[in-house]
Every structure is written in structure tokens, then in C-alpha cells.
Amino acid sequence: MQTVLFHSTIFGPIHSRRLGSSLGINLMPDDGKICSFDCIYCEAGYNAQGHGTTGLPARAQVAAMLEQKLGTMKTEGTPLDVITFSGNGEPTLHPEFEGVIDDTIALRDRYFPNVKISVLSNATRLGSESVCRALARVDNNILKLDSTVPSTVALLDRPVDPSFDIGEVIDRIATFGSNAIVQTMLTRGTHEGITVDNTTDAEIDALIEAYGRIKPREIMLYTIDRPTPEISLKRVSREELAAAGARITRRTGIPVQISG
Predict the structure, then answer these.
(1) Could you say which of 123, 154, 163, 203 would form a disulfide bridge with 143 (CB–CB 3.0 to 4.6 Å)?
(2) β partners of residue 117
(3) How many other β-carbons are positioned within 10 Å of the β-carbon of residue 65?
(4) How many domains does the chain have?
(5) Is 95:6 a contact under the CB 8 Å cutoff?
(6) Which pLDDT tens digit goes with each residue over 96-137?
(7) What is the structure's pLDDT at 1?
(8) Contacts of residue 209, Cβ cutoff 8 Å, sequence gap at least 6
(9) Is the dihedral of CA 203, 207, 150, 141 positive or negative?
(10) How do residues 175-210 score in pLDDT, each as one tens digit?
(11) What DSSP character marks residue 208?
């Protein structure tokens, strides 16, 4: 079974297709996965692998490890474009998320003031005022929206909360407006014998309507790049991504970044 990708709290820097030279922060266990989605394309594997044994890193621990790493990188002259919250699950589930963001901003300002701070989130925690305050303070508030069709969301993203409502999530993302970047994974395949495809004209049209309501400053379209838990999933060609991106920009005026 495919398992977690990140075995430490601070990892990298690595090259990100969308963000450049990225120092990662994993606020989830380093030997397990905790997420409010259970996406069939998740590079960190399914939630069924369990939470592991190490638990969540404490706020002070994250700050100490980050400061040590940034200090070393500055001394060695290591280039850095972005500090990215990603990892083995949904970062905003960390109970001290807002405080961790505050610490990260302070450390960034001290060591690499020109570096951006990014958070990759599935947008399931936007009902929390603390989470929203934190996301409003980062440079790149990147929020997932893979589909607006409930049946597709249920198959592709597999929300853990049975009361999950994609319409409500879109409304919450829209409160950020241009302070949000919307990220959409495009793929197709099958899961447990059921076709999954968020690349159809109907799916893209529905996404365009949502993007128009949200009015983010940018949309990121990407496709699978590493092995996925559901092995039937297919990469979408760069040409198809570019065509979808051009269609989205033509209809909404919003710039689209393509990674594929």
C-alpha cells in the first residue's frame, strides 16, 4: 500500500512545479496521515494507513526546527523561493495552526524576507475563524477545488465528513476573493468500478461558474505527477490542460497557471 511521503516536519528544499524552490512544513505525523479528504490521487496514500505513532509536532517544536533550517540555509547561501505548508494530510487540522503561521511569518521576515509563505489546503476548515485569520496572512493561500459536482467530489476527493457540502465550501472560499489561489487537479480513470472524470465539458463549465463567483487572483491547473493510490488514474496532457486554462481565462478573465 502506498504510504506517506514526508518523514519529517521540515523537509527540502525541493523543486515545486508550481512554486519554485520550496521548503516544506509537514504539520501532520511523520509516520502516518491525517486528512479531512481521502483523495484517490493523493501522493501520500490513503487515510487507511492510520495516524502513525509520532503525533502532531507542537508549535514550539515546529518553530525551533524551522529556525534551525532557515539559519543553516542563510549561512550556506541556499536559494529559497517559498515556505510551503503541505505534507501528510491537511495542515489546517493542526490545533495550533494560527500560531504556527505567526511564528513562520516572523522567522521568514528575520531570515528570508523576500520569500513567500504558501499553504496548500483542501478548504474544509474554512468554518474556523482562526484558520481563516491565518490563511488571510500568508502570501499564497492555495485552496483546493477539484469539482463542483457533488458526485464527482465524493468519488475523487472523498470527504471524511458526511455532511460535507461543496456549495458551502465554494461560498467560504469566495470570502477570500483575490486573497485566494484556487488549485484544481484534473484527472480521469475509475475507482471501484465507477468512472471518475473531472475533465468533461460539463465539469469544466461548472468549475468556471465557481471560479467566477470566487474571483481568485489565480487558478492553478495541474495533473498527477507521481504514483497514486488509485492506479487507474491517467495524466491529462499539457495540451489539454492548456486548452482548459485558455477556456477558463477567456470566460472569467482570471489568469491560469498550468503544471503538467
Answers:
(1) 123
(2) 83
(3) 15
(4) 1
(5) no
(6) 999 999 999 999 999 999 999 999 999 999 999 999 999 999
(7) 62
(8) 148
(9) positive
(10) 999 999 999 999 999 999 999 999 999 999 999 999
(11) H
